[in-house]
């Protein structure tokens, strides 16, 4: 029997567990029957039906008459990891609308500012990228303080950071080093992305350089695992 907590309604616990397994593609095809789920979770049939109804509304499962509930394919936005184009630019090229919410725009102490830019502080940005319906990524970025002359929260809400740096500051991006991690969503990011704490995230950390090998930005982008997948292209 699966142990579930009692701090929240029983059906919510069941939804979150099944959702994690569906979005991580741990389970495919038909779900166990209502009777089997009832036995697994140790709850009443009505609680199971309430949970399944919610998963169906969210578009994660569907019902087949006389056969039970089955998992629907998970649709995700594809991000080309090796491209210097940011997430927003890539989404727009796919013909999908993207919205940006600025959470933070401030000068703050940064332990690597002296090493990278011979400064004590950096310009810190925190942004949320959303598609038409919901948030999909949380982005933290550190930049040299001099970039504050070209950047404003208003500009960043309506244009790509890279576009602004290229057009207004005449900065040509040359390359980027990147690292990818799979992590569980911490509480503050889960709240911003409107997902349960511990949900799967794809973390892309990187450093971007200009044509003179100067560091332009250091960033960490937390992508919702249920909304975005990474594409890689390799050659021999």
Provide the descriptors you would attach to this structure in a database record.
single chain, 236 residues, alpha+beta, Arc Repressor Mutant, subunit A, Chorismate lyase, six-stranded antiparallel sheet, two-stranded antiparallel sheet, 8 helices, elongated
Q: What is the structural class?
A: alpha+beta
User: What is the subunit arrangement here?
Assistant: single chain
Count of discrete alpha- or pi-helical segments spanning 4 or more residues: 8
Note the run of SSEs as H and E.
Answer: HHHEEEHEHEEHHEHEEE
Radius of gyration, CA atoms, in whole angstroms: 21 Å
Précis, in short:
The protein has 236 residues and is of the alpha+beta class.
Description:
The radius of gyration is 21 Å and the shape is elongated. It has 8 helices and 10 strands. With 236 residues, it is α+β, with helices and mostly antiparallel strands. It has 2 domains: 10-71, Arc Repressor Mutant, subunit A; 77-231, Chorismate lyase (3-Layer(aba) Sandwich), CATH 3.40.1410. A hairpin with a 4-residue loop joins strand 8 and strand 9 (215-224). The N and C termini lie far apart (49 Å).
Can you lay out the helices and strands and say which pair or pack?
Blueprint: H1 10-23, H2 34-41, H3 45-57, E1 61-64, E2 68-71, E3 77-80, H4 87-93, E4 99-109, H5 113-117, E5 121-130, E6 135-143, H6 153-156, H7 161-169, E7 173-184, H8 187-193, E8 200-210, E9 215-224, E10 228-231
Helix pairs in contact: 1-3, 2-3
